[in-house]
Design a protein that fits this description.
Largest sheet of chain A: 5 strands, parallel
CATH architecture of the largest domain in chain A: 3-Layer(bba) Sandwich
CATH topology of the largest domain in chain A: FAD/NAD(P)-binding domain
Oligomer: heterodimer
CATH class of the largest domain in chain A: Alpha Beta
Helix content of chain B: 25-40%
Order of helices and strands of chain B: HEEHEHEHEEEHEHHHHHHHH
Helix content of chain A: 25-40%
Number of strands of chain B: 8
Shape of chain B: globular
Largest sheet of chain B: 5 strands, mixed
Number of helices of chain B: 13
Number of helices of chain A: 19
Structural class of chain A: alpha/beta
Strand order of the largest sheet of chain B: 2-1-3-4-8
Number of strands of chain A: 34
Radius of gyration of chain B: 21 Å
Radius of gyration of chain A: 31 Å
Number of domains of chain B: 2
Strand order of the largest sheet of chain A: 10-7-6-18-29
Chain lengths: 661, 338
């Protein structure tokens, strides 16, 4: 028989305001096994923990139930408390009477009854608890960063500087990501390439960093400290070791009609190409869809003229299997497809462009060498209308409900750059709100509006129509309460940003969770913002939520710090709550093996003693180092042969019984 | 298409051959029961024993499941290692064998599966309902059955006296076999096998609950459904295992039978081939197949059409994960799960 202590927390008024904590403590006194119960204002505080430690000693408790907040919050805390007082840390149960009771109910009487029931269930479970001991597993001291934009580069550099090996896997032919496409950066207006490209070089040159560009993660298995990852290195059709990056192949390539991804389709590129001059690695890749040799078999010009003999049409995709201790997702974003926002004529008129396209037009290395021009007639626009929140904070189906966070600032930047280059231009910005919460941000916006004379109009653009070679922009001015019609030469749409589509598949591979918008979910929105709920998986940059460059770099560093903290350990204490097989009950059906997401279950032929009969049987066997205790096997097993330590079938049943009593 | 009698003789002859010199140490078939309408599963170890062999319109019991114990006992004896067992499979039983193979309950190399065509099995209750008393013998063709009984001779259309499971036959193909002795017979058109489920779905939750309470209240926990089911084959059933805590619970109150059947339906969900044996063997005539068909209907709706036992390799929807899998919210959206 257990001797159980029940400790009911007030959580200040978080619990006590809705739940009669004293009544809970009194009610559980009569539960089987309960030797002591009390309540206290903050159980997690030193004072509260002292009450627990003293009670364990004084009442010779064999286990404790803490009725408090979610176990995600303080289970670890109370396990430590129990361990300090000499108890096995797994003789601790948490009844969540905050998130699952006081926070969601208003009626004090009913909430108290529910809190009593939840506490009773925890007592019932504890009665069947037995001490558990955790095993240890070694840590592979190498990290994988998925995504080679500024987030991935920064995280990799920080980890590598701490002395650990890092691999970056980037799906495009070069690292650099979206930041490489930007012209200037707010609020300081320093040139994006000037601050990014040195970092790209640092990453490539760092002895601890290995780049896998034009590569994708294909398979992930294992667990924190011991991931095994298959990386598909797609065939570049160019031998990177031989290529000198001279660029002759690109010049001579007869297929020059492909849209440049880097220039947002505003210029063409050859089939064999380097995305941009500062790309890393500076090795071309053959776009096999566009290549005449690959499509028709006739051509081969690049191979003929390559003096380094680097072009290799036979090159195949290569799968590499690497082991990592930690994985960082840094998959970034893309702008949403504007095809469905018909009111803005984006698909119809070449003079309606996205902000990212505008960015390329401003850029000295861009398709127009930095000359802002109308794409329809190459003339300098005299009137430019910027539209904010295109698809952001939106209630329509093709839009996003969230704020994309970066558009207010980059639009102010664009307006300012335009005024700087062409002071005579009339510039309008239509906005819902101008949001400038960042260091130097509001000052920056005010400069645009006050010093540069950019005309900020509160209101949305309702319609853009091509008329006599110009764009007729109909909009409302909410402050003046009137309709405006502006004859514009160019309309720039601040398209909402969304997670890169590759993130969804990656989340499945990593068993990392996502929100409804496909942003990765944090382990805790405030206290663990750079960790995913999946142990050993970390988040960097926009894949977790919209961010500007300063935020991204800070978060990238934070993710690196967490990774370094993990890799610095030689061993990880495992989770003792693992599955096990009761062999005489096992049918050998493999259902558990099929559902195990961690590949922790295998089958073997074994001699089993069943009621005195010795038999050769096919039975399940659990690799405890791989098992994460998810319990999928236990609910799949029809005979109940699979059971989970610390959450046995009988314990779950006892909890249900206690609730239904 | 040979008459059923001819198939029986071919089977008897082939079993004899295989037992004599075909490397088969035992044959699973049917032998005459106490009455003409209750042949029972039987093991035949020699040609002489085959005199009792019978295959006719009442050879409804499925045989594949008996392979589990047969092979296990053979292994325990430690002799005759590697010996093969002949099993006669009607098309519907071939699905059962596939499930046993898939779940490693039976080793493929220990089985010699002979497919036999099936004319559709007869329901003695329907014959009785047609006014026949004390049935003594019968003659059958593919379309008609003539009953000789103390109440006189009576000829009935085969279709009218088929078992429910044969009215929704999966067809004459064999999902697994080593040889086909008599090819499958064309099956009868039975219509929508989910009609009964649809009717239950249209009831209010209260009506449905009382329907099942009423049906299941007749259960006498004889375990016939469990014993006949090709996938209900645990070494030890949770309901026979005092340590599981399920048994004690199910005995505690009048919900006992309900709980047994609900748990059983969950345990066979995604594995049930809809062979209909559970309902056929139920002495209390509880329409247990409706529980399983509800699962099948939902699985088909959520994951695409799936036939358990159609092969021995494919992953069943409930023990598989695919990127496009339906989210749990789909149940709520459809109006259920409240």
């Amino acid at each position: 028989m257990q001797r159980i202590g029940v400790f009911v927390c007030w959580c200040g008024s978080n619990i006590a305001a809705t739940v009669d904590v004293d009544a809970v403590a009194q009610a559980v006194k009569t539960e089987p096994g309960v030797a002591f119960s009390t309540n206290y204002q903050y159980m997690c505080s030193e004072g509260g923990q002292a009450i627990i430690r003293n009670a364990i000693a004084e009442h010779k408790l064999t286990g404790i139930v803490v009725c408090a907040c979610s176990p995600r919050m303080h289970e670890a805390t109370f396990r430590k408390t129990a361990a300090t007082a000499g108890l096995n840390p797994y003789m601790v149960e948490i009844a969540n009477i905050r998130e699952q009771c006081s926070w969601i109910h208003k009626d004090r009487e009913k909430a108290t009854v529910k809190a009593i029931i939840l506490s009773r269930a925890a007592v019932a479970k504890l009665n069947l608890d037995s001490p558990l001991t955790a095993g240890e597993t070694p840590v592979t001291k190498r990290a994988l960063v998925i995504g080679g934009g500024i987030a991935g580069i920064q995280t990799a550099l920080d980890i590598a500087d701490a002395g650990y090996e890092v691999d970056i896997v980037e799906k495009t032919p070069t690292i650099g990501g979206k930041m490489a496409m930007l012209d200037k950066t707010f609020p300081t207006l320093d040139c994006s390439a000037c601050i990014l490209t040195p970092k790209m070089v640092d990453a490539a040159a760092h002895e601890k960093i290995t780049l896998y560009t034009y590569s994708e993660v294909e398979k992930v298995s294992g667990f924190v400290g011991n991931f095994t990852v298959d990386i598909r290195k797609r065939a570049r059709s160019v031998d990177a070791d031989r290529c000198t990056g001279c660029g002759d192949c690109m010049e001579k390539c007869p297929s020059k009609k492909s849209k440049s991804e880097f220039n947002q389709g505003l210029s063409n590129r050859s089939a064999i190409y380097i995305p941009f001059a500062q790309a890393i690695p500076n090795v071309p890749v053959i776009d096999r869809e566009a290549c005449i040799k690959f499509q028709t078999g006739k051509c081969g010009v690049c191979q003929k003229i390559c003096s380094a003999k680097a072009v290799d049409y036979e090159q195949q995709d290569e799968i590499m299997t690497r082991r990592y201790g930690a994985i960082v997702a840094a998959t970034g974003f893309k702008t949403i497809n504007l095809g469905r926002f018909e009111e803005f004529q984006y698909a119809q008129s070449p003079d309606v462009i996205t902000s990212l396209e505008f960015e390329r037009l401003c850029n000295a290395a861009g398709p127009t060498k930095g000359k802002v021009m109308r794409l329809s007639n190459h003339e300098t626009p005299k009137t430019v209308v910027f539209v904010q929140c295109v698809g952001s904070r939106s209630t329509v189906e093709c839009g996003k409900t969230y704020c994309s966070k970066i558009c207010c600032m980059y639009t102010a930047k664009h307006a300012m750059l335009l005024k700087e280059k062409y002071p005579e231009t009339e510039v309008y910005v239509f906005y819902i709100d101008v949001r400038t919460p960042g260091k130097g941000f509001d000052e920056f916006y005010r400069r645009a509006a006050e010093e540069y004379g950019v005309r900020y109009v509160k209101g949305m653009v309702g319609k853009v129509a091509e008329e006599n070679g110009r764009l007729r922009v109909q909009a409302s001015d909410l402050i003046a309460d009137k309709q405006l019609v502006i004859e514009a030469d160019m309309v720039v749409l601040a398209a909402a940003i969304e997670p890169d589509p590759s993130a969804r598949n990656l989340a499945t591979l990593l068993t990392a969770s996502m929100d409804t918008n496909d942003f990765f979910t944090e382990a805790h929105p405030k206290l663990r913002p750079v960790e995913s709920p999946t142990a050993g998986v970390y988040l960097s940059g926009v894949c977790q939520g919209p961010k500007d460059i300063p935020d991204t770099v800070s978060q990238a560093g934070a993710a690196a710090a967490k990774v370094i903290g993990l890799l610095a350990k030689d061993k990880l204490v495992g989770n003792p709550c693992v599955a096990g097989c009761n062999e005489p009950l096992c049918n050998g059906c493999s259902a558990c093996e099929l559902v195990c997401p961690y590949g922790a279950i295998t089958y073997e032929e074994k001699t089993v003693m069943d009621h005195g009969v010795r038999e050769q049987r096919r039975v399940a066997s659990v690799n405890e180092a791989l098992c994460q205790g998810c319990g999928a096997c236990t609910v799949t097993c029809p005979s109940g042969a699979m059971d989970l330590k610390g959450f046995t079938n009988l314990q779950i049943m006892a909890e249900v019984d206690a609730i239904c009593r | 298409m040979p008459a059923v009698k001819e198939i029986q003789e071919k089977m008897r002859a082939r079993a004899g051959e295989l037992l004599r010199d075909g490397g088969v140490s035992m044959a699973l078939g049917w032998k005459r029961g106490e009455f003409c309408h209750d042949p029972e599963p039987a093991f035949f170890e020699s040609e002489a024993e085959l005199d009792n062999f019978v295959y006719d319109g009442f050879s409804s019991p499925l045989l594949s499941k008996y392979l589990i114990e047969t092979i296990r006992k053979d292994k325990q004896k430690g002799e005759g290692k590697g010996s093969k067992f002949l099993v006669f499979l009607k098309p519907c039983d071939s699905y059962g064998l596939n499930l046993l193979l898939k779940e490693h309950r039976v080793e493929r190399e220990r089985v010699y599966a002979v497919g036999v065509g099936c004319p559709g099995m007869l329901d003695v209750d329907k014959i009785r309902a047609a006014g026949v008393k004390n049935m003594r013998s019968f003659d059958e063709t593919e379309t008609e059955v003539t009953i000789h009984a103390s109440s006189g001779d009576k000829t009935l259309a085969r279709r009218d006296i088929l078992l429910e499971k044969c009215l929704v036959c999966k067809g004459p193909e064999f999902a697994v076999q080593d040889e086909v002795l008599a090819p499958g017979l064309p099956s009868f058109e039975g219509g929508d096998r989910f009609a009964g489920v649809t009717e239950l779905e249209s009831m209010s939750p209260e009506e449905r609950f009382s329907f099942w309470r009423n049906e299941l209240s007749r259960c006498i926990r004889c375990n016939a459904c469990r014993n006949a089911c090709p996938v209900c084959s645990c070494n030890k059933c949770v309901f026979d295992n005092p340590q599981s805590g399920v048994q004690a619970k199910s005995n505690a109150d009048s919900f006992e039978e309900n709980m047994f059947h609900i748990v059983r339906a969950f345990h066979v969900a995604g594995r049930c081939s809809d062979c209909g044996e559970c309902s056929r063997v139920c002495p209390q005539k509880i329409p247990l197949h409706l529980l399983n068909r509800k699962f099948i209907k939902d699985i088909n709706a959520f994951y695409g059409a799936f036939q358990a036992g159609a092969d021995a390799e494919a992953r069943a929807p409930l023990t598989n994960y695919e990127f496009g899998d339906v989210e749990p919210g789909a149940v709520v959206k459809r109006g259920g799960g409240a």
